[in-house]
Amino acid sequence: MGFFHRHRGLTPYLLLLPGLAWLAIFFLVPLGFLAYQSLQSGTFDVGYAFDWAWGNYWDAFQRYHPWLVRSLVYAGLATVIALVISYPLAYWIAFRGGQWKNVLLVMIIAPFFVTYLIRTLAWETILADQGPIVGVLRDVGILGDNGRILATSTAVVAGITYNFLPFMALPLYVALEGIDARLIEAAEDLYASKFQAFLRVTLPLSMPGVVAGTLLTFIPATGDFINAQLLGTPKQAMIGNVIQSKFFNLLDYPGAAALSFTLMAAVLLLIAIYARAIGTEKLTG
Amino acid sequence: MTDMLTRQELLRRAGVGAAMLSIPGLAAACGGSSSSGSGATTQKLASTLRFANWPLYMDYVEKTKTYPTLEAFTKKLGVKVDYKEDINSNSEYFGKIQGPLSRGQSINEDIIVLTDNERYLATMIKKGWVEELDKDAIPNIINLVDVQKHPGFDPDRKYSLPWQSGMTGIAYNKTLTKPILSIDQLLEDKSLKGQITVLNGFADTLGLVMLSNGDDPSKVTDASWKAAIDRIKEASDSGQIRQFTGNDYAGPLDKGDLKACIAWSGDIVQLGNPKLKWNVPKDGAMIWTDNMIIPKGGDAYTASVYMNYAYTPAVAAKIAAYIQYVTPVKGTREVLGKTDPALAGNPLIFPTDTMLEQVHLIDPDALSNADYNEQWQAVLGA
User: Fold this and answer.
1) What homologous superfamily does CATH list for B38-165+289-346?
2) pTM across the whole model
3) In what helix (H) or strand (E) does residue A259 lie, and over which residues does it extend?
C-alpha cells in the first residue's frame, strides 16, 4: 500500500507491463530475428551466415514487385468491396436490428467457427463450374458456355472479400451503433434531407469504424496466400505465395525474410498515406 | 529429451561424468538417451512412443476412436503410443522442425514420416538430423520388399524404413471424357482445356512428362529437365492446365469440375467414386514412398521395436486393408488373401508385375538441385 502511495506515478507503467512484455516477446523479438535473418547470405546446404546482405532486399523488390503490386491491388479491391457490402449491413443492424441485433451479429461471426481453410474450400463448391452461380451466369450470357469463375482473379478477390468481411463489418457496426440518433433527427429537423443527413452526420461520425475496418481488412489481406493458392492459378499468385514458397520449398530463409520486410514496408507506406489523407483523428473519433 | 531418461540412467550417465552432479554429465544426460549415436541405446523401452504421421494413414475404428494395431502394440509391449496426424505436407512439416533440429534440439518425436520424392527426407539424413535404426531390434526387416532395399538417399537402410508407397498416374472422370491414357493426351487434347490439373511436386508432374518424352526420370539431365518443364510451362500458359494442386484436386475431380488430372493411386481408391478411373499412363508412372525416420533426440530403440512390429505381415495386412496404399512388407498379400481376397487382388494396393515394371523413381539429385527447384517454383507462379 505504502509503495504505491509513494510512487503513484509508477502505477500506469506497472499496469502497462504485461502488455508491453507481450508485445516485446511475441512481436519485437521475432521481428528482430526476422530482420537479422533477412541480412544473411549463403545456401541452405552450407548454412546461412549474417553479413549485412542488403542485396536480399534489392533482389526481393526487383524480382518480385509484380507480385507485390498484384497483392496490393487484390487486397485493395477486396477492402473496397467489403466496405460496400458491410456498410449497409452494419447500418441496418445498428439502426433497424431491434431485438435481432445480437442474432444478426452472431450470424456475421458464425463463419469464424469454421477454420479458414475450410471456408476457402467452400468457395470451390460455391463457384464450381457445375454449380448454381456459374450456371446462372452462363444462362444470362455474362459467362460464355465454357466460362468459369474458379481459377480466375474474380475468384481470388471474392474469396479474400468473404474471408475478411467480418473484420470490416464489426468495427463499422460499433461505430454506427455509438451514434446518437438524436443528432440525425436534429439534422433532419433543421435543414437536411435524409440523404444529406447521412452524408453530413452519420457518415462522418462512422469514419472511425471505416478506418479501423479498412485497416483490419487490408493489412491481413495483402499477405494472404490461401485464397490465391486454392482459388487461383499461377497467374494469380500473391506475394504471400512467393514468401511461402521461398521459405518452405526453396529453403531460402533470408530471401523470404527480406520479402516479408519489403511487404511490411509497402503496407506501412500505404497506411501512412491513407492516414495523412483522411486524418488520424478519424481513427480515434 | 525423452521419457526414457530414467533416474537410474541419469545417475549412471552422471557417474560417467566423474562427479555425481558434474555439469558435463548432466548435460550429456539431458541430451536425450540416444543422442550419442545408436551405440548408446539403452535397450530399454520408453513408456511412450511419439509418432507423427500423415492423416488417414493408420487403421482406425470410428466407433471406438481407437487405432487397433497401435492398441495391440501397447498391450503387447506396455508402450503407450502418442500418435498424431501432424504431417500434411513435407515442406511445411520440415519448415516447422528444421529450426529446433538445426540448433541441436529434440523435436519430441520418435518416429516421423517423410516422402522420398521431395528433398526433405534426404536433407534430414544428409544433415545428420536422424538417429540410426537399431537393426538388432528389427529382425523383421527381412520382410522389406526387394525394390526398397537400397534407395539412393539411404543405400543400406541405416536411417529409414518405408511406411507405405503410392503411384502417381492419371485419373479421369469417365462420364465427362473418353479415357485419358497418356500424358500427351492430358496436355494436348483441346477438349480438356481448363479442366485438368497437375500436381505441384515436380517429381510427380515432371517425372511423368519425362517418361512421356522418352527420358528417364531416375537420371535427370539438364536437357531432359528443360524439355519437361517447357512442356508444362506451355500447357500452363495456354490455359490447358487449370491449376497446380496438392491433394486438393480430389474435391473438384469428385464434383466433375475436372475431366482429368495427375493423381495419386490411393486417393482415387479412397474417394470410392465409380465414375473415376486411375491408370498407369502409357509411358509409365512414378512411384514414391513415405519413409519412417527417427529424428535426432528420438528414442531409437523404442522406435525400432515399433518398426519391427509394423513389419510383421499380420500387422501390415491390417494397416494396408485400412489405408489402401502399396505396402512394402512381404507376406502381407498372403495374409490378406485369407481374410479379404478382394483387397488382396486390388492392383492399386498390390501392383501387378507388369505395373511394377512401368513405375519409376525420381532422381534424388534432381530433388535437391537449387536451380531446378527455383525454376519449378517459378512455373507455379511464385
Assistant:
1) Periplasmic binding protein-like II (3.40.190.10)
2) 0.83
3) helix A253-278
